[in-house]
Amino acid sequence: MKGYIWRYITGILLAVWMVVVFCFSAQPAEESSEVSGSVAYRLVSLADRLWEGDFTEQQRLIYAAFIDYPVRKAAHMAEFAVLAVLACAFLSSFEKVGRWCYLSAAVFTALYAATDEIHQLFVPGRAGKITDVCIDTIGAVIGLFLLFLCRLVYRRWQLKTRLTNSRKKF
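Request: output the structure for the sequence above.
Response:
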């Protein structure tokens, strides 16, 4: 029963995140640029406060424009990293987590990235780019790699805890 609950929860989360990605892609170019520009401006303002800088408003706008593209691509990578991790979690409800789970999640995410770029061909001011599919897929692979590392650390911690507890019994 526990496995079915995990399957439903992860399946719902995966579907919701796919809708979120679709909605971000459905934003017209002007609206999307405004959102990423706003994030870039906030990052510059935060950096200015943290390092006690004296940026003028003009300097903040210039720096924000400079980092806008990397911020946008990092957001794409993060968006698809989350998608890949959710896909892997969903797939793990069907079988033991292994190489095939990670590989299947990566392929699924790459295919979704491709359909996402096709979708953007129909959105005003947006364009579907193969480079964006590659960036999204790299984000997915990074997310899956981080998931793998977290699981590895957790398993080693569990093993260490079990060994420590078994020694205390004797």
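Residues 130-169 form the longest helix (40 residues).
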